[in-house]
Amino acid sequence: MGIVTPGIVPATALLAEPSPAWVNRWTAFAADLSPADLPEAVVERARLVLLDSLGVTAAGMREPECRALAERLAARRTGPAPAIGSGLSLDPRDAALVNGTAGTTLELDEGNQYARGHPAIHVVPAVLAAAQGAGASGADLIAALVLGYEIGARIGIASKLRVTMHPHGTWGTVGAALGVAKIFGADAAMIGRTIGLASSLGLGTSRRTMLEGATVRNTYAGFSNQLGLTAWDLAESVFLPERDGIGTVYGGILADDFSPDAMVEELGSRWEIARNYFKRHAACRYTHGALDALARIRAEAGPLDPDSVRSVEVATYVWAAQLDHPAPGTMLAAKFSLPFVLATALVRGEANTDAFRDEARADPRILALARRVRVQEDPAMTAQLPGLRPATVTLTLADGRVLSGQALTNRGDTEDPYSADDVREKFRALAGPVWGAERSEAIVAAVAGIDRAEGVEEVLALVA
């Protein structure tokens, strides 16, 4: 009997579908790519992404829950892989989980505005663990990072995640898996098997975690790294994937509107890692346009007394406007509260890591000012996504003055990038309290030469 229920396709029809052409092109491309094929600009950006990821991970590892998780896992079983900046050595899968978690905790990890997510922190811990186990060269590490970043970001571009989902822990799992497969020298068939398996291993994430400050959200990237390593083990053990798992999962389960053409558009000439962004504000990327607009107001008006600010009006795009809760209960929730972000930046001078800790969240001046912030979506600004991330901030002062500033892009985006020196200075600021100035400089130097290194042991020893 045939199927009469709408929306249900018979197995005979499903199984008759051919393997998608984009997958075959992608797996051949990834298998054939050698480190020498990467343009120097891409290698340079990958080195900066690696350095930035090490810095944000080490700084995040100082947070109590990250340290507690690393210690708990180390007590259960040890191994050769460092929990970065902790002094603890873990099983590689445990290290991938902990390092990915710590790397997202402070909201300072890099991202890609076109993918609408953070590809690197889903890939770096996994490829570091794999490179250590495989004895890979530094050039192999860079190539694996670039490829893992590329496929993860392109899935984000090619699909539209459900609006109730958080992007962490989704397509990043495929990126981690491809990076691991490349480290181990997989051919096209094994790469196809590995990424197909990984497509079924993405998490069912909730966007509300970030709004509520539920720190389980910080583990999503950690699990993507761990599951990327697991996908390789499954592939090596001859577990079989769905024929088009990526298309199925990101075309109707976790996401909709999957576009195969976007997966191969300018493949090999447009590199997603080369159009990434770096972050200096320790808060959700959606708040950065308003923070940059506020910075312009302060640059033009000079010092402002926060107590003289009678109201703050923010017009911005939909995802930033959603972050309107003025009284966050945790550090994570504070980073996803546009009223709190602007208030703490006004009172403390900047939205750095300390601007969201317990002391700041208990500051009555900040809390009172946050309650005077009003946020409104501007549909015209929403229509400018993802190329632009606009915001207009208007301050009304006690003396009657009205000050306004606007930002169209976020500082650090490809349209207004931070320099390489800016990224290195950010690393030094985060790494100094963990390792001290001398070791931090040694890490900067080691990462700068990683693509010429015979292995990854020097970098891993320094960050351990």
Automatic annotation (TrEMBL):
The molecular function terms of the Gene Ontology recorded here are: lyase activity
Domain named MmgE/PrpD N-terminal: which ranges?
27-237
**Which InterPro entries does the entry mention?**
MmgE/PrpD_sf (IPR036148), MmgE/PrpD_sf_1 (IPR042183), MmgE/PrpD_sf_2 (IPR042188), MmgE_PrpD (IPR005656), MmgE_PrpD_C (IPR045337), MmgE_PrpD_N (IPR045336)
Q: Which domain of life is it from?
A: Bacteria
Residue ranges of the MmgE/PrpD C-terminal domain? 281-445
PANTHER family, per the entry: 2-METHYLCITRATE DEHYDRATASE (PTHR16943:SF8), 2-METHYLCITRATE DEHYDRATASE-RELATED (PTHR16943)
Q: Which family does it belong to?
A: Belongs to the PrpD family.
User: What's this protein's name?
Assistant: MmgE/PrpD family protein
